[in-house]
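Annotated sample (chain length 279).
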Amino acid sequence: MSYKTILVHADGSPQAAQRIRLAARLALAHDAHLVGAAMTGLSRHALPDGSIVPIGTPYPFDLRLLRSRAEAALTQFADCASHMGLPSFEARLVDDAMDDGLLLQSPYADLLVLGQGDPKGHADDLLSRLPQDVMFQCARPLLIVPHAGQFELVGDHILVGWDASVSATHALTAALPMLRRAARVTLAVDASGSQHGRRIDLPGAELARYLARHDVRVTLAQLKVGSQAGVALLTMASDVNADLLVMGGYGHWRLREWMLGGATRSVLHDMALPVLMAH
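Output written by the structure step:
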């Protein structure tokens, strides 16, 4: 697997420039096509037939203003991509809500780059819940960029959270292109689980052998999680000076209400480094 199409959310926010630069660096490193997607914010389901009325038609929303904001966000994206010398990129304006617009495009990208919601914002705000909203409804991995901080170098030292679950396996597979390029990979193993390969092995040893066959060398570390797996992962990431955390996203989607696993919730709220998640 390799990243050949990367999609980044361009929303014109103060955090967007950092997110776009990170996505552009990834696209350059992996020789990938970069798509900057900006949504107008008006759902395609606003009308019964899912259509959007033409500009100038009486409507409770000013579509010209919505599109003008999206176009400004795409101008920022295109300027950044051009300045960084990306050979292949496109700016894409989508008449849709943020979450639905990203989900609509997700099958056609190998990786989605989104921003963390403001930890001080309201939990029910669309931007605050956007990463988990998209993650739990799409089949692609998300690279989530913290709301605050600078992240010029991502993927040199990667911390992988591993408990042998389906979600962790999906995240690990999605991260392989970056794991192969990393100078250092630390495998943080939750030894409390029982599904770690052969019983005679140390937890994580079977995965280390699997990754070695993918040309990924790892350092094993035992993670003492207790009931605070997310806190333990973020603490270890800080202790080993990792610049990227890879982990599974846990939770369920039901009637547009969130039931997040504790680790997912705490990492999404307190993350201080980019996180690659998959559900």
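Annotation: The longest strand covers residues 33-39.
Annotation: Residues 252-260 have pLDDT under 50 and may be disordered.
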